[in-house]
Amino acid sequence: MTLIKSISGIRGTIGGKTGDNLTPVDAVKFASAYGTWLKNYSNKDKLTVVIGRDARISGPMIHNLVVNTLIGLGIDVIDLGLSTTPTVEVAVPLEKADGGIILTASHNPKQWNALKLLNEKGEFLNGEEGAKILDIAEREAFDFADVDSLGEIIPNDAYMDIHIDEVLELPLVDAEAIKAAKFKVVVDGVNSSGGIIIPKLLDLLGVETVKLYCEPNGHFPHNPEPLKEHLGDICKLVVDEKADFGIVVDPDVDRLAFISEDGEMFGEEYTLVAVADYVLSKTPGNTVSNMSSSRALADVTKAHKGSYEASAVGEVNVVELMKKNNAVIGGEGNGGIIYPELHYGRDSLVGVALFLTHLANKKMKVSELRASYPQYFMSKNKIELTPAIDVDAILKAMTEKYQSEKITTIDGVKIDFAENWVHLRKSNTEPIIRIYTEAKTQQAADDLAIRIIDEIKAVAGI
Questions:
Q1: Is 404 labeled as catalytic in the residue annotation?
Q2: pTM of the model as a whole
Q3: What would the pLDDT profile of 233-255 be if each residue is shown by its tens digit?
Q4: Which residues are 434's β-sheet partners?
Q5: Domains identified in the chain, total number
């Protein structure tokens, strides 16, 4: 059982002992710290925070604890109820709120939940802001409101529809072209809020939808991370239904993966590549992704005469570099699309609508579209951490071993070889070391990963 505190929020498993897991006490403590931080750095007499949650089994419990903690601090809560991460991000500036909290552990299994924290722009907090909240939580420096100054709850269940409307109004979303294409699509909503919002969007775009695991009951039918090894059911159903492709989202709908018409993975790395190709064809400019993302985005950006830059892993880091470089599209290779025309946050709805438009314009099969892009293959692995494993020592040893290669250390260690690369980093959300490799064949990527993992284990003595 685990409790992970980071600048992006608090994440842990439900149950167990306070301080070791995400217990009710920990949820209240961290919500108190966030609310106190907002009050400390605001000149306003009355603050408002937008709250939404995914469909996790623990969602209603954590939701009630967090909402009522903010009420106790004298903060008004706009309660979206069942929602998505990008929906809350869209709602915060539209409501002119002072912040937002999404109650979701994203791709983690059902025993996990988390508080993901937003600023007044509906964007994730930066490192300095997150550190201040952690300090407030550690000191328990809370000052709750008196009985005449308590906050109030303002229910608003319209925001998934508002979010969809905002997406449909984007100039690069061509609803008429999508309707004319008469697509048939299978949707795997992993029994969370994506099972509601993605079919709604598709219906308005005139897409015939076959639903798979779209009941928002929190009982995830498979590991909710949208990776190939978890998606056998939808891969089969796409072929059985003779669908044009499949759509897979994670529980909070900020990661997006596609299944080609032949039942093969389009590749979550190529979600961003395909959407960026379309956006850059209409609005030339720069792109950004994180260091663990495919080289294919850089290749496509260069083909459109743009400039590509890589950030440290983490949405806040991608967004910061996107703003600095005036990127027209960006995101993460895990299927996260960030399209600033709507908002600076990973958004599967934006990704679906832009991908459908791209496909309608191209008039080709999804497998053909995938084959049109530079061919790279990734291997994504991890090593479970124990207290005995010294991650810093491991990373230092690997840096020294490969010092003759191109090394980047802004986030773990990335080693760029001529034909492939490996990125080693400690996860911000799980007690693991991530080992990502990419090469021009799957075998080469897998072989590199095996070699590096063996070297790490030798250094760590495991």
A1: no
A2: 0.92
A3: 999 999 999 999 999 999 999 99
A4: 382, 425
A5: 3
